[in-house]
């Protein structure tokens, strides 16, 4: 679904220190979330930096409770870079959050490097 977004960013065309390995420079990982933080809260905090395509708070399959992290996908690399610079290590619902560029999901069969 988002494969067209992943092609836009590489080390030659992007001034944002993005690499082809990273996949997309417009998707951010947000860690350290309060277990009470939900998708509307996360979207509300990040939408001031640009248009958001998708927000996802990762939840436990059995309990349905947040695992304390999520992802925010912006429509542009610039919006994501602005959000990363502004929101990393900031307080959100009483917790210092960590914001980084999202890494591609690894296959279960891939060896760690």
TrEMBL record:
A GO molecular-function annotation: RNA binding
Record key words, sorted: RNA-binding
UniProt xrefs under Gene3D superfamilies: 3.30.70.330
Signal peptide: none
Statement: the UniProt record of this protein carries the keyword RNA-binding: yes
Organism: Arabidopsis thaliana (Mouse-ear cress)
RRM domain location: 26-104
InterPro entries: Nucleotide-bd_a/b_plait_sf, RBD_domain_sf, RRM_dom, RRM_euk-type, SLIRP/GR-RBP-like
Descriptive protein name: RRM domain-containing protein
